[in-house]
Amino acid sequence: MIKLVKSTFYKEKETKESLAKFILNTEIMSMGDECKKFETAFAKKQKRKYALLVSSGSMANQVLIQSVMNRGLLKKGDKVAVSALTWATNIMPLLQLGLEPVILDVDIATFNVSSVELEKHIKGIKAFFITNVLGLCGDMSEIKKVCDKHNVLLLEDNCESLGSEIDGKLLGNFGLASTFSFFVGHHLSTIEGGMICTDDDDLYNMLVMVRAHGWDRNLAPETQQKLRKEAGCDDFYAKYTFYDLAYNARPTEITGFLGNSQLPYLDEMITKRVSNFKRFAEAVNANDDFMKIDHAHINAVSNMAMPIVCKTPEKAEIYKKKFAGAVEIRPVIAGNMLNQPFYKKYVHSSATYPNTDFVHQNGFYFANNAELTEEEVDLIVALLNK
Ligand SMILES: Cc1ncc(COP(=O)(O)O)c(C=O)c1O
After folding, report:
1. What is the CATH number of the domain that holds 341?
2. How far is the CA of 60 from the centre of ligand 1 (A)?
3. Are 105 and 138 in contact (CB under 8 A)?
4. Cα dist. 270→19, 48, 161, 215 in Å?
5. Which residue's CA is the nearest one to ligand 1's atom 8?
6. Residue 366: burial class (beta carbons within 10 Å; 0-12, 13-18, 19+)
7. Which tens digits make up the pLDDT trace of 214-239?
8. How many domains is the chain partitioned into structurally?
9. Does residue 279 belong to any structural domain of this protein?
10. Among candidates 147, 144, 139, which has minimal Cα distance to 80?
């Protein structure tokens, strides 16, 4: 059986052995040098000025939205566009923080929202928290242009697309900030973990505070002094002074250590995933039982799972049976968010999302793991053939 998650880490044995040694030899294991080192290296790799390590991809989203609100870039009641095809914790922070999600349908061929769909619904939208779904994306440069034209803040949930590249730019580098997940089975695993990237100094300082209680301890000394002066507190009371709404989303040194252990393999993992994707997509696009996948506009598709959509529910049943017992399959993320119980509880909407429903009813995904063997890739390709 080819499972969705093959192992906890790439190079599992070496990583677990070095983790055991690290734990035995490290005295203080709360957030420290390993986390900082991973942040610096990740920011460089992602070509962003800052990277902030947090406890999960979900908390990356939560901390980002809270920080954007603390900075006054969004306020309660503002409308924020999101994709109908996404993960629950992409949308939950919006509801939790009093923002109004505006759900946009996806293109079936890209699994993502297009600039045309965005522009159609742009009236009154203050931000677009886009999800780059499973290594794929819409016409990102056009989406960015539409956002700029209408003064819409672009934020990227890139939890499923680390390493994908379009128009010569990494996904996650189009908006003011982007989020990443390092949960097991994602592109890079720290067991649990997430990252927020940005180039913006003020947003970064806010993210640092929102990650840990709203205090100033992890800020640069000059920023601390400025805040303390404004709040009228001295260095003694600053230890327990809380400047804005926040969480505790700190990682531990284990997260940092694992990030530093896995990061040197990132290029190798991405290369393998990009090459697996090409083989899978070629097989999908050669079989007229499936909807075509449009990836010609993307330079490199780095996904952790491969989505496919059959043309009819009957065909979907046939392929689900074919995969059963050989390759683990799951729905294409959470399907249409509007149908999720949590969403229905808090939002009453009669809007319809035919493309996302089509993907949910006729689609499934399977692993695109960096450690799939050639035989395993061949087996999956054979299942994708008519
Ligand atoms: C688009 C998207 N956003 C956020 C998350 C949440 O990440 P985590 O599982 O690290 O909390 C996921 C998880 O897979 C995701 O797919």
Report:
1. 3.90.1150.10
2. 9
3. no
4. 23, 18, 10, 37
5. 57
6. buried
7. 999 999 999 999 999 999 999 999 99
8. 2
9. yes
10. 147
Pairing of strands 298-300, 169-170: unpaired
Asked whether residue 2 is assigned to any structural domain, the reply reads no
Output the pTM of the full model: 0.98
**Which of the listed residues 207, 238, 264 is the one where a domain comes to its end?**
264
Ligand 1 centroid – CA 323 distance (Å): 25
Residue 159 pLDDT > 90, yes or no? yes
How far apart CA 168 and CA 356 sit, in angstroms, is: 28
Q: In terms of C-beta density within 10 A (0-12 exposed, 13-18 middle, 19 or more buried), how is residue 239 classed?
A: exposed
Atom of ligand 1 nearest to the CA of 131: 1
Which residue of 55, 89, 130, 171 sits with most ligand 1 atoms within 8 Å of its CB, as the best mutation to test the pocket? 89
Residues 333 and 374 in one domain: yes
Q: Domain of 72?
A: 12-264
Q: What does the pLDDT average to over 289-302?
A: 98
pLDDT of res. 136: 98
**Separation between Cα atoms, residue 46 and residue 48, nearest integer Å:** 6
Which of the listed residues 132, 183, 192, 303 should we mutate to test ligand 1's pocket, taking the one with most ligand atoms within 8 A of CB? Answer: 183
Percent of the chain's residues with pLDDT above 90: 98
Both 209 and 315 in one domain: the answer is no
Q: What's the average model confidence in pLDDT over 160-170?
A: 97
| Shared domain check, 326 and 222 | no
On whether both 239 and 304 belong to a single domain, the answer is no
Task: Report which ligand 1 atom has the smallest distance to the Cα of 193.
Answer: 10
Q: Is residue 5 part of a domain?
A: no
Residues 206, 253, single domain; the answer is yes
Residues with CB under 6 A from ligand 1: 56-58, 61, 86-87, 89-90, 131, 157, 159-160, 181, 183, 194
Tokens of 362: 């006729």
CATH of the domain at 222: 3.40.640.10
Average pLDDT over residues 296-320: 97
In a domain, 373, yes or no: yes
Expressed in angstroms and rounded, the spacing between residue 149 Cα and the centre of ligand 1 is: 29
Question: In the numeric block, which tokens belong to residue 83?
Answer: 């994709």
Shared-domain flag, residues 245 and 292: no
In the listed set 224, 248, 264, which residue is the last one of a domain according to the structure? 264
